[in-house]
Amino acid sequence: MVNNSMGTKKVEELLVSKSMPLGMQFYVPNYQRGYRWKESQVQQLLNDIKEFDYEKNNEKKFYCLQPLVVTEDKENGWVVIDGQQRLTTLFIILTCIEKMLYKEKAKLYQMNYQNKPQMHDWLEELGDVNNDVQINSDDIDAYHITNAYLTVKAWLEEANDLKAIGAEIREKIRTYTRFIWYEVKGDIKPEIIFTNINMGKIKLTNAELIKALLLKQDNYKGENDDVIKASQIKISTAWDNMEAKLQRDDLWRFLTGSGKFSKSETHMELIFRIMAKDIVKDRIRNNPEFYVENEEELNKDTYTFIIFSRELEYLENENEKTDKPLPYSELLESFWGKIERYYNMFIDWYENREWYHLIGVLLAKEENQTESYFEELCDLYRTHTKSEFVRKLKERIINEIDFEDKDKTDFSFTHEVVEEYLKSLSYSDKKIDKDKIRNILLLFNVISMQNNTDSDPRFPFNSYQKQKWDIEHIHSVTTERAQNKKERKEWLDSAWPYIESVASDPKAFEMYTKAKDVRDKKFYDDEHATEYDEMYNSVIAFFSGETGTDDKHINEISNLTLLDQRTNRGYRNQIFPVKRNKILEKSGVESFIPLCTKNVFLKFYSKTVSQMYLWDKNDRKDYFDKMADEIFYYLSGTRKEQ
């Protein structure tokens, strides 16, 4: 579609004028549905236009509507391929204002409909000053047209000053509102284009509009056809390659986490959103008018297109002022180089293993998945050397940890500070407590991956973002026992092989006896049987290496690890060896099991391993110490004393 015409067109350019006594002629073909806007949609458009803070005589500041896709037809005028709902709504709004304020019929543009020619008459009748518009329920299109008119009328009547508000809305629409005018040229049938747009084959997103804007034929004034074609192919090919890589789930999840701040199907949009902010910051230093207050908020769907359109116009004007203006193909190549630099920045983040882990752990946090935070990381990268960038990322991670005394002017990041923070963490039902623990456990996993240089593994942020995570108690919680007899039996059946395997251990004799008694006499069938609860507590205590049921340590971080919800909630608070087997069975097969979680159940952190069925206080201490060491020594950049 590179030969199509792309730009913006003021609503005023559509209206009756000396050169167009009837206004523009629009024709809505029969493959489109009728007019269907509801009250809420009409009110939203009116509210958006009202909130638009325009400046008289400054037409560079405008409210932008989504694309009006048209193609010219000698018999019917402009065939509307996409955008007829807004075009019809603006007709209704202007008609209502003209009639209410000036008691005149508005001189606008012509709307004709192939499928239902009478729709033209219904719209025209709205402007008849002698016609008191009522809801017309005889036809679905007539209903929506009359309902939209009455919605506008009611909205205006609710205004404190009807004449002032009405006149302001009229002026804003006519002079300071623009359509993105997308004119399709060539022999392609309009209905095919309409189908492609609505099926998503042609995506008129900001990014795709920018692509069409940059490559449109009209830009290449006087250049050779071969030069034009070569330029268009070069940019189009580079664009497709960049978009294909950004569509990769591993790269995209790393950059955007859950993708909340960049939901565009065209992932190049991420580059353009960041670049648009930088363009505005650069230009307003010497040209304050380049910035328009609230423009992004008012033009959410078209903002980056507007900025790129304005920047392209600026560059072309500046180019014309030079002694030897560059041809557009060279100007475009220079501009495209800026786009590639943003893309290469993201690829560098991904491909540099240390940057990948540091940036990934920051962007994996839900509260950091915002456009403003992403911009800060971009600025950090562009304004520092490679070594400084790493140091700044580590500082940011440290600053985001809620250390108790980090706001003190003499705060120092020490091993003791890390230990005290880890000791302060305790599992509870409060989201803030869970978030703190989850962030630390994620950090521990990511640092462990980064520190493993034998095979250069990378933490899979895409897998992490796809799954929902629980903070798992390594040693079970006594209060979370099975409640019904089926679950109680299943729990005991799973634990029994391990209970039986330690039967010869004198320390296990009482526990084993109770478990055997419950199993033989089926006390699990009686939900009120005290024998089951006594057995359960005894089994939990034994496999935690404790002599009783003291749960003081249970919610400390030394007894916590990350586990996906599906795995965690599938084994119902089982004892340590049952959990270990189930986790190792699923690792890499059914779900992503974090490295440190696997290490915990393999007792990788335990300095002395005499058995594999307990998670006792010595295991907890070794795990805690390793976590504190890994976090401190990596983030501080110091080496552990041997």
Structure description:
The protein has helices at 39-51, 84-102, 118-126, 140-157, 162-176, 190-198, 206-215, 225-246, 249-256, 268-283, 295-298, 303-321, 328-351, 353-363, 371-382, 386-400, 415-424, 431-451, 461-466, 485-501, 509-521, 530-543, 565-568, 576-586, 595-601, 617-636, and strands spanning 5-10, 25-28, 63-73, 77-82, 110-113, 177-183, 469-473, 560-564. A hairpin with a 3-residue loop joins β3 and β4. The model has no long low-confidence stretch (mean pLDDT 87). The protein has 642 residues and is α/β, with parallel strands linked by helices. It is elongated, with a radius of gyration of 33 Å. The strands form two sheets. It has a six-stranded mixed β-sheet. The protein has a two-stranded antiparallel sheet with strand order 7-8.
Comma- or semicolon-separated keywords:
642 residues, alpha/beta, six-stranded mixed β-sheet, 26 helices, 8 strands, 7% strand, elongated
